[in-house]
Write a structure and sequence with these properties.
This protein is 47% helix and 10% strand. The chain has twelve helices and seven strands.
C-alpha cells in the first residue's frame, strides 16, 4: 500500500522530490475530471437566461457522457426555488454536488473569523444535503485554505470532524477572467463577433492543461488524474462542448471526480503557512521547488489572453 504523508519542507527539496518518487506508481494515461464552482448562478447575463445557461452546460456534459461535480455557493441561487431547481438538475443528471459556502467569503480576510467561515459551510450543507448527488466535498473559496495557523489548522480539524474532504483542484484555470471579458464585450455590442474570445479561451485551457501536466510529472514522476476548476458561467454555457472536445482531441481520458479523488495524491496535505491554490502549486512551494519555465502563466489570471484580445480591439 502506498504511504501517504503530509508534505513538510524540513529536508532539501531534491531529497523530498526523491521521497515522492519512491511512493508513486508507474506512469499512467492522463485523465481529467470536470468540476464547476459558484453554481447555480441565477444572475442575469447577456445572451442566455439562468435556466438556459444551466441546461447548456448539462447538455454538453451529457453529449460527451461526462459526470462532473457542481460546487454550490448557495446564495448565488440555491436558496431560491428557481435556483434550487437548477442545482437539482445537476444531481438528477448524475453529477456530484459539493459545498462551496453560502456567500463565497474569503478565509484570508482578517475581518472574517474562523467560526464565521465554518458557519458558511454548515449553512450551505443544510441546503445541498437535500439534493441528489450530495457529497461531503468542500471546495475552499478562492482556493485559500487559511492565512494563519489558527484558520489553517482549525479548518482541517473542522472538515475532519464533519467527515468532509478537501475537494482539491490540480488544474486551475482563469475561465472567470475570460468570462468577465465576454460579458464586457457583449454589454458594449450584443452582436459582437465572439470568435476571438472563444479561441483565446480554448487556448488558455490547453496552455494550463499542458503546464499542470508537466508540473505533475516533475513533482510526482507521473500523470496524476487532473481535477480541473471551471465555473458555472456564460463562457462555459457557450463553449463547454468545445472544451471537452479539445481535451478528447488531446487524447485525455475523462473520469468522474470521485475516481480522480481516489488517487492518493489527493490525500496529501501540503505543509505551508498559507496553503492553497492548485494542489500542485501548493505542493511545489512546500517542496521549495524553484520557479520554472511557465510558472508565471499558471498564476497570471489569464493576463496574456486578455492583453492579446485588447490588441484585437476587444
Amino acid at each position: 500500500m502506498r504511504q501517504i504523508f503530509a508534505i513538510r519542507p524540513v529536508f532539501p527539496a531534491t531529497m523530498l522530490l526523491s521521497i515522492y518518487l519512491i511512493f508513486v506508481p508507474s506512469v499512467q494515461a492522463q485523465s481529467l475530471a470536470f468540476t464547476f464552482d459558484d453554481g447555480p448562478s441565477v444572475a442575469s447575463t447577456p445572451l442566455m437566461s439562468a435556466q438556459a445557461r444551466n441546461q447548456a452546460m448539462l447538455d454538453a456534459l451529457t453529449k460527451h457522457q461526462v459526470r462532473a461535480a457542481l460546487f454550490v455557493t448557495a446564495a448565488n441561487g440555491a436558496t431560491q426555488p428557481a435556483g434550487y431547481a437548477l442545482a437539482k438538475a445537476w444531481g438528477d443528471a448524475g453529477h456530484a454536488i459539493g459545498n462551496h459556502t453560502m456567500t463565497h467569503p474569503d478565509l484570508h480576510n482578517d475581518k472574517l473569523s474562523l467560526a464565521q467561515y465554518q458557519q458558511e459551510i454548515l449553512d450551505c450543507d443544510r441546503i445541498i444535503r437535500t439534493l441528489p448527488g450530495y457529497q461531503k466535498w468542500f471546495r475552499y473559496t478562492y482556493l485559500r485554505e487559511g492565512n494563519t495557523a489558527e484558520k489553517r489548522d482549525g479548518m482541517r480539524n473542522f472538515l475532519k470532524q464533519l467527515d468532509y474532504r478537501n475537494a482539491y483542484v490540480s488544474l486551475d484555470t482563469s475561465d472567470w477572467r475570460l468570462d468577465e471579458k465576454l460579458t464586457e464585450v457583449l454589454a458594449k455590442n450584443p452582436q459582437a463577433d465572439l470568435s476571438p474570445i472563444k479561441l483565446a479561451y480554448l487556448s488558455h485551457i490547453r496552455q494550463r492543461a499542458i503546464a499542470y501536466r508537466a508540473l505533475s510529472q516533475q513533482l510526482q514522476g507521473r500523470d496524476i488524474p487532473q481535477i480541473i476548476l471551471l465555473h458555472h458561467n456564460l463562457i462555459n454555457a457557450l463553449w463547454l462542448d468545445d472544451v471537452i472536445a479539445q481535451f478528447k482531441d488531446m487524447g485525455w481520458n475523462i473520469v468522474t471526480p470521485a475516481s480522480a479523488f481516489a488517487d492518493p495524491v489527493y490525500q496529501l496535505v501540503p505543509d505551508r503557512p498559507a496553503p492553497g491554490q492548485s494542489l500542485l502549486l501548493s505542493m511545489a512551494r512546500s517542496l521549495g521547488v524553484a520557479k520554472f519555465d511557465g510558472w508565471t502563466r499558471l498564476v497570471d489570471d489569464g493576463d496574456a489572453e486578455i492583453e492579446a484580445l485588447k490588441v484585437q480591439g476587444l
